[in-house]
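Cross-check.
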Amino acid sequence: MTYESASTNQSNGLPTDLDGIDAATRVEAVLVTSERPVREARLVEATELSAADVRAAIASLNDTYEDSNRVFRITAVADGWQMLTLPEVAPVLARLLAARQQARLSQAAMETLSIIAYRQPVLRAEIEAIRGVACGEVLRGLLERRLIRIAGRAEELGRPMLYGTTREFLRIFGLSGIDDLPEVDGLQRAPSWTPLAREPDDSSESSGPEVVDTVEATPTPEA
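Predicted model, tokenized:
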């Protein structure tokens, strides 16, 4: 089927007839051009396949990649599907990305992010109590990177903000969900609060809200 022979949408001139394109090719075309995980519902919409056919196509593609020793697989990440390279080629990519060392998270940011991931939703005051230092600037940086979000407000005096992780956090760390977090000594998956109203996670579309917290910072130096 050629572009010229395909039936087209009169409003935008794009081909609409997918009958000549097999299921695996449709799914692969969507995933190979996406920099972020694609939700199954979006794959169904884009490929005009059923959810079962999408999953079958993904399984078939992964079998093909494995049989041909490809360095990537289609993996479930952050409530969606994404084409990712295999862990064993990480050293090669590390060399390629060496110039981006300065963009990596600082130790203070990693510590703060870990506390939020395991304790979410969590107050800024609790994070500072655990770390022993003020973390306002660190939180602001994590919000700007879209790794954390305002998850709601606590039901206490002043209704301070609660922090949680985002879909971008799951994508960056290769997790399907928070339950996939590894066990770490001293950190247990234990939410501290139930927010009055949960805020939607729109981290993939926005740069994140500005940090404006009503909890006073601990008067200690920033880490």
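DSSP finds eight helices and five strands in the chain. The radius of gyration is 22 Å. Passed to J.P. for a second look.
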